[in-house]
Design a protein that fits this description.
The complex is a heterodimer of chains A (246) and B (279).
Chain A: E1 2-14, H1 18-27, E2 38-50, E3 54-58, H2 65-73, E4 80-86, E5 89-92, H3 105-115, H4 120-134, H5 149-161, E6 167-171, H6 179-194, E7 198-202, H7 206-212, E8 215-220, E9 223-224, H8 231-245
Parallel strand pairs in A: 3-7, 3-8, 5-6, 6-7
Antiparallel strand pairs in A: 1-2, 1-4, 8-9
Helix pairs in contact in A: 3-4, 3-5, 4-5
Chain B: E1 7-11, H1 19-30, H2 32-46, H3 56-75, H4 81-105, H5 107-110, H6 112-115, H7 123-140, H8 144-150, H9 162-186, H10 190-204, H11 219-222, H12 226-239, H13 247-276
Classes of the chains: A alpha/beta (246), B mainly alpha (279).
Amino acid sequence: MNAIELDSVTLDFPVKGGARYLKEQVTGRFRTEGRRTHLRALDKVDLNIQQGEILGIVGPNGAGKSTILRVMAGVYSPDEGLVRTRGKCVLLAGIGTGFQSNLTGRENIRLNGSIMGLSDEEVVNRMDDIIAFSEIPAFIDQPIRTYSMGMKARLGFAIAAHLEPEILLIDEVMAVGDAAFQKKCKERIKEMVSGDTTVVIVSHNMGTVKNFCDRAICIHEGLIHTSGEGVDDAILAYQQILTEEE
Amino acid sequence: MGKDTPAVVITSKRPGLLGSPYTVFNRIREHRRLVKHLIFRDLKVTYHGTLIGWGWTMVEPLALTAVYWLVFSLLRGNDDPVFVLEILLGVLIYGMFSRTLSRTTTSVVGNSGLIKQVAVPREVFLWSIGGFQSLRFVLSILILPPLLVIWGIELNWTLLCIPLLVIGVQSLAIGLGMIFSILHVHVRDTSHVVSILTTAGFFLSGVFFGMKHIDQAYHDIFALNPVAVYIELGRALTTGNFEILQTSYIVQTLIFSFVSLLIGCIVFVRHEAQAIKLL
């Protein structure tokens, strides 16, 4: 059974903002003057990801990798086509987003857990594990503003690591904290991906994609550019695009 | 994940005109715990590091009362405590409305980091602002019963209807806020315009005067300002004196607020997906 299905998904980003864009949106006068008003981020993308599968997405900067992840997560709605997901879906991107600097680490765990979809009971049950994983128990009742960047990242990842989703979408968040903590993060991600969890990883690190993924695709200019479906095929397609661009 | 796990389907289709308000209320109901967390986050953050914490919600209006009493009773020779009470209610009710409106207007842009990372309904941020400002207002008016006793004004059962007033004011503020928050994503001047409007509204909504100070011929025009009617209603509920406030004014204001909320929900639900792409 597919955990994620993208059926002819198209997504456009407005190129310009401001009053002019608003006027065009209200009057419905798009593309009437022959000028490009939109940037096509995804162009009729079809993609099925099976339950328990680990998919890597590679591609150059601005290719649409993060956008496709956000479409899967429900952050962006497609302009055409449809996205179908089965199970609790969590997007790991920008670790620690939404932290309040004047609240303590513990209060931020409660708030962030709630934002990420955990119930109050789940937050209470996982609180000790999150604090232990973050390796900052001595500071957990201090305001976050007293934390270093590394400590914030640790806490952010610790929360993310205990969300227990059925679909995990990871956007370049493997490198958190010092070398020892990075190792711990990778081990935790391995644990998460070893079960039934469906995982989609966006990364520029080909080693990460090779180590973790069952399958990979290469995205460029909103289209899937892969001759086959293996990880090596996607990496090859990515390298060819980079060579062509040079 | 079992075979019967229901699929979540995301398309470009938006709910219809009637479906939009239902969608908003349903999302808020589903995410009520998050709304609660965000309200208490705001309460903690606003009064963080202060000696008396949220006690400031009561100390602030008390201090204002002292200032108004000093200015109007001592300097202008008006020793009617009802006058001071009316100004205090005007300031508190207008403060709740204007803070909710200005903060909801900037809430989508202000929470852009979170909105782009987590698929939570964006209405949650606006409604939690409304919830926090309502809570702040309710805590502030806890000073009313003791003040009424001190001033020898009879405590009236109508005071218990203040929560209904809060619902009316916040329906209006959140409804307008939902429209302005989308507009603000497209045109960042919106927050400045709202700031000017709320400042002008402070002087036009009868905060420092009341309907009784206006010629009766102009009452109908004055009552077209829903915030002015809410301020007048707050005064009437506190003193139990409804002589000057016609029922038709209250009904038209409640209808106006309800319609604002419905239009706000429709605009927000139908345009937020495109607006988020501009964050």
